[in-house]
Amino acid sequence: MAKVVAALRNHWKKSTVGACLLGWGGHWLYGRHCDNLLRRAACQEAQAFGNELILPTMPLKKATVFLNPAACKGKARNLFEKNAAPILHLSGLDVTVVKTDYEGQAKKLLELMENTDLIIIAGGDGTVQEVITGLLRRADEAAFSKIPIGFIPLGKTCTLSHTLYPESTNQVQHITNATLAILKGETVPLDVLQIKGEKEQPVFAVSSLRWGSYRDAGVKASKYWYLGPLKTKAAHFFSTFKEWPQKHQAALMYVGPTERPPEEPEEKPSRPPLYVRLYRRLRSYWSPPKEFPREVTPEDWEELKLSTIELSIATRNRQLDLTRTEDFMDICIEADTVSKGEFVHRGSQKIRDPHMCPEGSQCIQASRCILQLPEGTEGSFGIDNEEYEAMPVEVKLLPRKLRFFCDPRMREQMLHAAIQ
User: Where do the DAGKc domain residues begin and end (predicted)?
Assistant: First the structure.
């Protein structure tokens, strides 16, 4: 023992490095062990769904998974196959996995998709935006938009996961919780933004449209990767070397909030007996109902000239209120009188929370708006963190358009918060 202590003392540098490596290796192995326990527990819970008896005449539920292998810097495929795929297969679903090979492919694949009971999106914000755009561009979108959608967060940015699932610092736990939430069947209705240019087909988003200097600088932050945690501040700092102050000129026309109609019942009423249907048909034939012309209320448009450092148009999905009586989207027009120091500091905050509306900004609630840009305007929009060329657009809110699976605990929190 004395010889071992003497050797460690004489070679203290090697001993220190070895102890650090041993500690790190032990921590890594313990983390892998904990992840395997989480996967096993999730699979056992999914097995309970798979063991449920079904009638011989009932077909298996079909689930179509749209997987973006390039998400999370190419790690999404491995994350899906290790954490989510076993749960889906054990649950008794008839699972079809569709892997996308290039950007925009999901939109084309949705046009060819046949009937399915569930749509599952495995990726990040970009994958969600592509799938719902392809879904709502279909000629039969009225029927397909009623299909419930599941979201498995595998991407670098997963905005919807903050609404649908509890926060978790463990990636494996976050993915397994999201997959189990799909099996439990609880859903919430989410609003959708329809964004239409003058010539292009409409694009759909569940989060927001952003246009301005903070978005442009945030996109370039990855170029300064060698600065580590300072890359975000560096991107915004170097952005101030451009023409300052950075102003974005536009004209905005908008219509205020609309009253929310009552939600349609999920269960269809039972079909009346044959003699009742015959009686109703004969009565409508001999004495057809009189049609009265409906009075169309003219829309009350308001116009605004704006000069801003950034404009954002966002849904209320992040602060989901299941009991609100009005439907609207939030338009945030940030003041252009910002110092360079404030710009750098606020830019870091907006990376963490892109939907923040700083003090001094003009906030508008609208159900529909038209954004007119001056000729020759350059730059890009950020639509659910995907880049699109800046152009004049009409943005329309489609309230409660899609239903997404969510964790039952999150739904309870929403209802409890609404009651309070």
Answer: 58-199
Question: Does an H or E element contain 63, and which?
Answer: strand 62-67
- Given phi > 0 = left and psi -120 to 50 = alpha, else beta, which region is 14? alpha
Task: Give the model's pLDDT for residue 279.
Answer: 73
pLDDT tens digits, 11-31: 667 777 777 888 888 888 888
Positions of the chain with pLDDT lower than 50, given as ranges: 296
CATH superfamily of 22-49+57-185: Probable inorganic polyphosphate/atp-NAD kinase; domain 1 (3.40.50.10330)
- 115-140 burial by CB neighbour count: b if 16+ within 10 A, else e? ebebbbbbbbbbbbbbbbbbbbeeee
Count of beta carbons in the 10 Å neighbourhood of residue 54: 10
Residue 49 to residue 180: CA distance in whole angstroms: 10
Listed by start position, the domains of the chain span 22-49+57-185, 208-260+298-400
Kindly provide the residue ranges of all beta strands, DSSP E only, lying in 101-171, ordered along the sequence.
118-123, 149-153
pLDDT at 369 (0 to 100): 94
**Residue 211 CB partners (closer than 8 Å, separation 6+):** 248, 310, 311, 312, 371, 379, 380, 381, 382, 390
User: Which pLDDT score is estimated for 143?
Assistant: 87
Paired tokens of 331: 């338009």
Candidates 371, 367, 389; CA nearest to 380 is: 389
